[in-house]
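Customer escalation, tier 2.

The customer says the design service returned an amino acid string that "doesn't look like it belongs to this structure." They asked us to rerun it and document both sides in this ticket. The original structure tokens are below, unchanged.
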């Protein structure tokens, strides 16, 4: 187990496609009354989200992190939105409902789909507050960028999007971040670095236009991944989760 996870209690959570590894952090001084879930991004793992644990524990929250399918100690060799939603729903059945969900990158897209009920056949996950760090705003845009990068023509792109529709039970357009944020209507903090080279700052701006419940916080020079290790970011997240901002 990575050093950053050693203060946690590990627990394997079964879901229809295997099992995911969860890690539970309990506050020392009081019995927790509320739980915060941490959801990592593509190629990440639960350990990558542990920078948020300490300030949340200090505020009295139980914190649960988990490895998405095909990542960390969880089973599987692939990850997509339906698989991610199914695994998140399984974790929610054990540890939910959540006071807040804190996400990074593709974990934000998975969480939005879980909260909005965008994957047919999966229960809607509930939370009171949401944090989206370096999250994509448009799965449609990312899918089409991917198709262009691998040389798909018009017919190939249409076939890819049809495959997504079949697997998820909804067209790719159903996973647009702003539309889902409007549908769930949760207080949301969007944090994004202006120099993010993997997902440009325009993604955060699009999410922030979803309505008055969405706050946007820009960082400088932290990029897409170092943002997870920045203490000021972790402290901002904790304040928002507490409800102090």
């Amino acid at each position: 187990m990575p050093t950053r996870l050693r203060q946690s209690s590990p627990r394997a959570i079964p879901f229809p496609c295997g099992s995911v590894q969860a890690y539970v952090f309990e506050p020392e001084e009081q019995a927790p009354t509320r739980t915060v879930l941490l959801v990592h991004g593509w190629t990440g793992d639960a350990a990558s989200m542990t920078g948020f644990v300490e300030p949340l524990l200090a505020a009295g929250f139980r914190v649960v992190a988990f490895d998405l399918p095909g990542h960390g100690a969880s089973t599987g060799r692939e990850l997509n939105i339906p698989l991610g939603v199914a695994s998140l729903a399984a974790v929610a059945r054990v540890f939910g409902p959540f006071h807040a969900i804190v996400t990074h990158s593709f974990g934000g897209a998975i969480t939005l789909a879980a909260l909005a009920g965008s994957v047919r056949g999966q229960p809607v996950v509930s939370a009171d507050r949401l944090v989206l760090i370096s999250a994509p705003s448009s799965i449609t845009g990312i899918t089409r960028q991917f198709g262009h990068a691998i040389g798909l023509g018009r017919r190939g792109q249409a076939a890819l999007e049809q495959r997504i529709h079949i697997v998820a039970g909804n067209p790719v357009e159903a996973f647009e971040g702003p539309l889902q944020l409007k549908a769930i209507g949760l207080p949301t903090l969007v944090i994004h670095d202006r120099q993010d080279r993997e997902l440009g700052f325009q993604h955060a701006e699009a999410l922030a236009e979803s309505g008055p419940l969405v706050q946007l916080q820009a960082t400088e020079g932290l990029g897409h991944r170092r943002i997870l290790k920045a203490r000021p970011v972790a402290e901002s997240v904790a304040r928002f989760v507490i409800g102090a901002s």
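Tier 2 assessment: The sequence is consistent with the input. The longest helix spans residues 81-95. The chain has a mean pLDDT of 90. Sent an explanation to the customer and offered a walkthrough call.
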